[in-house]
Description:
This protein is mostly helical. Helix content is 74%, strand content 0%. 22% of the residues are buried.
Amino acid sequence: xxxxxxxxxxPVLFFFAGQxxxxxxxxxxxxxxHRNYLPAAFFFLPLAVGVIWLSKRFSIRFAVAIALVxxxxxxxxxxxxxxxxxxxxxxISYWALKNPESxxxxxxxxxxxxxxxxxxxxxxxxxxxxxxxxxxAHLTMGLLMLKVADGSAEKSDFVWAGERLxxxxxxxxxxxxxxxxxxxxxxxxxxxEYIGFAQSLLLRVADNERYMRFPLFRRFLxxxxxxLFLRQGRPDDAxxxxxxAMKLYGHVVEAERxxxxxxxxxxxxxxLVYEGEIVRxxxxxxxxxxxxxxx
Length: 295
């Protein structure tokens, strides 16, 4: 039928070819419809062929009427989608309701609820999602961070989060959540006991070999422990942790050497991205080391 009906074959084959650019056998957590904009570019061809066939089979007036009905329907659907996408709250709510098994969608809705002064509803939402998705480290950190932010977190909450993280699969979004947690407890006016609780949390995560097998996390861990020691007023302990982090981050020098030897067309990302990240790491390390020296 590729040869006998080329105007039908083209849109179908082009659609699947377009999907191959980003699709694999691994299902995506969330479906984003913009991925179909280009693959669906030729879907108008079968519709046009159908209208022409109707005009020949019946009458031009009937074909025009069908075309107007299709145009009206598609315009209405476009307006509906535009209305949904025009509001972040509506869009994220739709994603969360449509994807109850998506930790990212549930966390997104919780953040919207918090921003609208509905922290209690966000708490209930995350608690229910954590029960449905016991393997989601992202939800674990989201729930703990919510309680820490409103000052309601207790030692049991940190222990609960630590026990879950010690068993859950590695999740880079959870690592980002830990980073935000350390940022919050070291920079905000929070109860002093949160620092000790956070230290215990890091130690429990370190028990999870699925995290420790990643060099990035092995560097991340002593760096964050050093930040917590600084907040506790323990510069000597902080200095030791930062020395460990510096040793592990020593690969930055090797990364610079490798980057300099690579051609631009061999890099997965822009050279500026890599250079900027190297500069950021150096600045973070120097900033924290300077804090140690001033204590």
